[in-house]
Amino acid sequence: MTSSKSREYRDHYFPGTEELADDEVRVVALGTGMPLVRRSQASASFLVQLGNGDNFIFDMGSHAAANLACLEIPFNQLTKVFLGHLHIDHVGDIGELWICGWLGARTKPLEIWGPSGDTPEYGTAAFVDNLKKTLAWDYRTRTGSVPESGGEMIAHEFDFTKSAVIYEENGVKITSFPAIHISDGAVSFRLEWNGRTIVYSSDTNPNKWFLDYARDADLVIHESFMTANTLVRRRGFKPEVAEMVATKYHTSPAQAGKVFSVVKPRLAVAYHFFNDLDTKYEVLEEIRTTYDGPLTLAEDMVVWNVTPDDIIVRQAAVADNVWPNQTKEDAAVFPTLKRGPQVLPSQWVQDGLLEFDDDMNITNYTEDDD
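and the corresponding structure tokens:
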């Protein structure tokens, strides 16, 4: 058994160089931004890693899959995703994780937990089913060349109207509870393991359920949208529209600060704003009007190591040009597979294939054939 008490942490987190202690949680911000995609910030996604070896992904927004890949974790260890709601900036890279993780040697199904909607077509099960239909051609052309089990995607839809334990295995308990975000079908999550608690809002207005479930947690990650002033100054919103977006569709920094001051986490994390030099200080200043406790303004690839005695905040040092990390056992499966005839093109398409001799001369085409 290893303990976090004797651990010395480097200034940066280097993936693959630090094993978690038995009493330790690592949280990595894979995406902290908004639906307006940009290179500097992926959309919402957080990875939670536990000292028992479990990994859980909360939301998988657009462009977050590339940040996840930078951590060089075998895809067979990244099979559990929990969605707070079905906006593109929270689900945009589910397809990437599904297909690319499959190609990256995932041999287990990708499992998706997410809320129901007010009607079935707006729930997570319908989202997963429709994503499969959207990527049907992609899926069909992969079969036979990668393990079929890794191409499965399973939806675990739960009732968004009820606070309930939706996952309980290996000492881990994950509770979903209602959130308020534009329409029915949004939720937040509470993860409990080994005396540690992580709470993630996804997108929500301040609400009573969050106060009940986030109180005294180790790490509370709550959205804190850009200030109304930023929306007026940078996007040209009318003041009344900016105020509505910042406080009615989302949680304003001052509101987020008030939530933090009530639930009193060991460390508060504010996310879901453009973290730029001319915007983050407005967010910080507004949060500090209602909260004076420990705080991180989230950026992509920030890492929090949560132990019984401390919470260490660092940046991950990652490589851009990574290859999928796969175990020898997973990789050994691929050479044994053969592409089946059911996915081959029609014969007339195959007849258009160029043939080459050993000197790379084309042997079955002349200009007269053009």
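(Above: one complete record from the training split.) The longest strand covers residues 25-31.
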